[in-house]
Every structure is written in structure tokens, then in C-alpha cells.
């Protein structure tokens, strides 16, 4: 990965970006602005402490789905013991790899390549405001990448993998992160490819890491999680609504830009709901996990209610409200699916043991 370290003069409508001290983030209370700064959320305080800025670039609020995905994969393995100190340590290390290190890498490199767009949409962010140098950002990118890859290799050694499965997954995920943000491919320029890559990174990849760490990553589970990532595509569309003006000016074909807000919001809703309904049906009809299927259906219903309450009336104004209220149901649905897969795997293992004993 080669990234130029020269500083770029950012211009918006042929005007130089304003002095950092004069830029203003959306007005919120000082306490809330400080919290948003540490979490890497919109409306953050204009912090000058370099270490707080470094944390902000990694957007800790985005670590949560990846950490959760690792837990879902561990549950799906059918072999993870929640009260085993060694396995708990391995799980936490895998969460550190997927969250702070590799998601932090992804978010930092995305901010680096989005600095022109951020100068339009969010000029108060650390890079376009000049509160951190581009050279410092490049150093952070490399440190987080090698920390993630090193942790992946260490986990492979810890659990005795002959093939460094976790290292391969980490390399693949890092490659996707790079081509998502960086030219010439820059997948995010294409609404479909970019959003599906983002959804897969948030759902499939951490699940695979958790399941591979404690069990066997089977092709059927890989297909299931890739399909589940279509729901992640829907979530990614929600994130695009707030950036529609900047994306349009920079020529990025996000789905709200390509199809318009009204069409994009229905694509978003359909991707989220139809995917989860399909997975719930598979749990019942394919894995015969009827209880888990019923629980997942129960978690889909409040999401549909919240879509009609917040997302469909005004996706631009209500994107944060919708995500905050609906996403907990989606992520608990992921865990429900992981537990169902793990229960099905245990049932198969038990059946094989019984047959072996009889023979």
C-alpha cells in the first residue's frame, strides 16, 4: 500500500478551507460533544489533543458491530465455552483485532481518502480542519494495520492452526478496506459494490473470524453470512443519506445519489427486512431451529415499525434516530442466528457421537 505523504490544499467551490479555529461542528452540549469526539461521531468537539484526535479517527462507535460479529461467530462454532478463561482471552483478542485495530485502520484510511469530501460535508473533521497532519495519519494507518495482522497471526499460533486462517481473513479484510476507500478502484464510488463490501465487512468477516477461531468455517455458514450481509448493505445506505450533497458534488454514485432519496430508502428497507426474513425462514426450514427462527421474526417486527416511524418519512433527518433505535434489534438477530447455527452444529456432533458409540 503506497500512500503519498504530501499535504494537499483542499478547496471547496474554489475556496480554501477555513481556519480550523473558525470551523464549527453541529451545536450540542459540551459534554455530549466531548463524548461524540471520543466515539468519532458527527457533532464532535473540536479537540486539539493529538491522542484524542487519533482515537476519533478510528471511530470507536463503529467497532461495536465488528466486536459483536466475532461473538456471533464464536457462538456459531458450537465449541466456544463462555466460562473458559483461555477461550475468553482468545475471544477478547479476536475482538481487539477486529475492532480497534482493523476497523480503526479501515476508518482512518477512509478518512484519509475522504478528506476532500469531508471538506464539504464535515469540514470540522480532523484532517480537513488541519488538526492532524497527513503524515501522522499515514503513520497511524500502518501501525493499526500491522497491529491487526500481528494479532491475527498470534491467534492462529495460540489455537494451533496449521493454516493461518485468521491471518488470511485479516489480509483479505484489509485489502477490501483499502480498495473500498482508495483509488483507482474506490468501491465506495459505486453504491452497490461499495455498500455490499461495507456490509460484508461488518457482518460476514468478523463472524468468520470468530467461528474459525473456535471451530470450522463451513461453506454453508459462509454463504449464509454473505447473504446476511445484504442487510448490512441496507445499513450502509442509511449512512449515505447524510452525505448526499457532498457525494453528488464529488461524483460518488451512492445509492441516494444514483436513485434519489425516495427510491433509495425503499431499497434500504427491502435489503434489511427481506434478508432477515429469509434467514429466519432458513433457520426454521433448513436447520429446524424453530425457536430461534421465531425469536428472529420477533426481532424483525420492531425494525419494520421503526422504519415507518423514522426512516421512511425523512431518512436524511432521522438517520441517527433510526440507527440508534433499530440496530439493537438487528444485532441481536445476528446473535440469535449464531446461536441457532451453533445449536445445529452441536446436534450434528451429538448424532455422530451416538452413531459412533453404537457402531
Q: Would you mind describing this structure in some detail?
A:
The protein is mostly helical and 359 residues long. Helices cover 72% and strands 1% of the residues. The protein has a two-stranded antiparallel sheet with strand order 1-2. Strand 1 and strand 2 (15-16) form a beta hairpin. Helix 3 (63-77) packs parallel to helix 14, helix 4 (85-113) runs antiparallel to helix 6 and helix 9 (219-241) packs antiparallel against helix 12. The longest helix is centred in the C-terminal third of the chain and has 40 residues, at 319-358. The protein is globular. The termini are far apart.
Provide the residue-averaged pLDDT.
87
Bulk shape:
globular
Termini distance? 56 Å
Provide the spatial order of strands within the biggest beta sheet.
1-2
Short description:
With 359 residues, the chain is mainly α.
Q: Any chance you could write out the topology, listing elements then pairs?
A:
Blueprint: E1 11-12, E2 15-16, H1 30-39, H2 50-58, H3 63-77, H4 85-113, H5 115-121, H6 134-159, H7 165-181, H8 191-214, H9 219-241, H10 244-250, H11 255-259, H12 261-285, H13 290-311, H14 319-358
Antiparallel strand pairs: 1-2
Helix pairs in contact: 3-4, 3-8, 3-14, 4-6, 4-7, 4-8, 5-10, 6-7, 7-8, 8-9, 9-12, 12-13, 12-14, 13-14
